[in-house]
Design a protein that fits this description.
- This protein is α/β, with parallel strands linked by helices and about 220 residues long.
- The chain has a single domain (about 1-215), classed as Rossmann fold, CATH 3.40.50.
- It contains 9 helices and 6 strands.
- The protein has helices at about 1-25, 30-45, 50, 60-70, 80-90, 110-120, 135-145, 165-170, 190-215; strands at about 55, 75, 95-100, 125-130, 155, 180.
- The chain has a 6-stranded mixed β-sheet with strand order 1-6-5-4-2-3, with helices on both faces.
- Helix 1 (about 1-25) crosses helix 2 (about 30-45) and helix 7 runs parallel beside helix 8 (about 165-170).
- The longest helix has 27 residues, at about 190-215.
- The radius of gyration is 17 Å and the shape is globular.
- The protein starts with a helix and ends with a helix.
Length: about 220
Amino acid sequence: MEKIKLMEWNLLTAQNLAIIDQEVSRGNFSPAEYEIIRRIIYVSGDFDYYSLISFTGNALKSGAAALSARVPILVDTPIIQTGIIPLLQTTFLNPVYCINENSTTLCFDLKNSLILPTLANRYPSAIYIIGQNQIILTSLLDLIPSQEIQPSLIITTASGFIHKEAINLKLRDSSISHIRIDSCKGGANLAIAIFNGLIDLAWNAKQLEIREIKN
């Protein structure tokens, strides 16, 4: 019975992705980038994200390398932690730490403000996933110039109307590999979709590489 349900779910997913492919083209995106975009549109039901997502040129490559090296992943909400751990447990096994453990509010209090620099200094090349709290992203971007840290990748999909354009501009002008949403729209569900898509892409590439070495 469970196998039948799984097959039905996979068929439904394939049908939904086929509809997305009919509505949008790959355009100037690489095949890997387009796969990420399909997943965002699938989980959100919003085709606008096709034109709202931005990748730095080496974002997916840098993220895949960090996953393979098992660098820690720092997230801004337990929602993301819960959403990415199951797939990580069957693939790269990277540890995941939450910067802001208060999942019911967007606050970033004094206690949590001390967690960020502590984790950043302990894991200077961590992957950061910011899906809910722009304040954490701002604090991270302010922290980077004064500390010897260089994130492997930043994924930011937090929604918001205040200062988001300025924050994204600061991120865009940095040398940090990142994936961002250039809109007031967003949410943690998008961050989960992006990162799980990256895990799948990186894991499949790694398995292919292993098979080629064996042959």
